[in-house]
Amino acid sequence: MPVELVPVTPLAHCAAREPLREPQPRKMNKLCRQVSIESPGLAGRDCVFSFDIPVPDVPANGARIRVVCAGACYRPRRSPSQTSLTSVSSTGSLLSQDVSQEGDLPVNLPHYGVRDAALFPGYEVAGTVESLGSEIKENCGYAVGDRVILYPYDGVPNGYAEYMVVHDLKYLIKIPDSMELSVAAMLPTGALLAMNTVFAAHEHVQALLAERGDNSVCKILIVGTGGLALWAMRIAAYHFSNMKNRVTITIASLKDDGLMMAKEFKRVNVVQWNEDLYEKQLIERTMDACQGLVDVVIDFGTTSRSLHRSLQCLGKGGVVFVIREVADRLLPKFSRRAEERQQSIKPVDPGSLQQLEELVQLVASGQIEPPPHTVYPAEEAFDVVQKLCHSEIQGRAILRFYPTD
Questions:
Q1: 346, containing H or E segment
Q2: Which DSSP symbol is given to 232?
């Protein structure tokens, strides 16, 4: 697995560490660093902010986590009208684009690299248990020093801080010692969403093949770039491995990621979606790569243009799986059109706690290989965003708050 490590030094704004655990956790009257990353705007506009915040107190029935690694992604900015996102990098979409106030017309920005995990600002977190609450019993299953990730439950705190707390230990998942925390940080959101989407598609594929007979083939098109598409491709290859002669997978990708995917996965077809081409040309190019209309589309795009193109490449009775947040915005426009073509658009949620536990085991055992990633010190968050904006980072970018795993 290709991983590039950048030298890391501890954050200077965090005071000396407290003992790992005391019988009665006391308040820590010190500050730690928190980073806020907003969606990149026009060139030159600041999008990374750093604050000194109080170290959070340990919940009586929870734990305090020392964050070691966090996946680099950003918080979308909202327009003054509060009716639409004005700078949303697509979660694996065609290009890094703004969305107009109508919510469907892409507006190009000068950055094209930032396109992954925008739905999860600071939720991809891996670290160690620093303290347990005063009401936690010794047989709770967790101990100070355990390496963990945090399931992104409703109300989960932002993870771009040196410390964060969880009020219920059930949301923590232990990480095997064999797994790097930089890899673990990619699992709770982007990888989990990709896994749940592939699971949903798997059910449809099985039903379709059973209906068509023994010699039938199901065609799958995965739309997107960045971490989501990379994870989906790997997870799909694993879950469809027992029916590889009956399932074909094609990736609709930007040039940079497409070349990497084609090199890594010989059995996966890749079609380049060059936005400089006319829509008709892109649809024809996609159907040529897929050898006709497809049966299933996993669309990680966030724009109407992406969904419209996916439906054009989809056959009668086909299904498009889209992220829930995107479906809520685009379904009113496309539901009638899909019905007329006897197609369906199905929203997909981020995934369950049980799926995340399974994903940890699959990655730890080597059955699913994580995408390439690069680790950077948290102090370099601004430089990381700039590199993402210029497509200078392949795979995922991970921020490290502490130098040791």
A1: strand 344-348
A2: H
Distance CA(255)–CA(258), nearest Å, equals 5
What single DSSP character describes residue 141?
S
**Could you tell me the CA-to-CA distances from 184 to 120, 189, 239, 260 in Å, in that order?**
15, 11, 20, 22
Compute the radius of gyration of the chain from its Cα atoms: 22
Residue type (1 letter), 85: L
Domains and CATH numbers, the chain: 3-75+121-186+370-400 (3.90.180.10), 189-348 (3.40.50.720)
Contact predicate 219/288, CB 8 Å: no
User: Residue 88: which of 79, 102, 76 has the closest Cα?
Assistant: 76
Q: CA-CA distances (angstroms) from residue 302 to 102, 267, 287, 335?
A: 13, 27, 21, 16
pLDDT tens column, 16-29:
444 444 444 445 45
Strand, helix or coil for residue 271 = strand
pLDDT in tens, 253-290: 765 555 565 556 656 788 888 777 788 888 998 999 89
Contact predicate 73/90, CB 8 Å: no
The separation between the first and the last C-alpha atoms of the chain, rounded to the nearest angstrom, is 17
Cβ pair 109, 98 in contact under 8 A: yes
**Phi/psi-derived region of residue 51, left when phi > 0, alpha when psi is between -120 and 50, beta in every other case:** beta
Q: Contact, 148 vs 175, CB < 8 A?
A: yes
Quote the Cα angle for 129-132-135, to 5°.
160
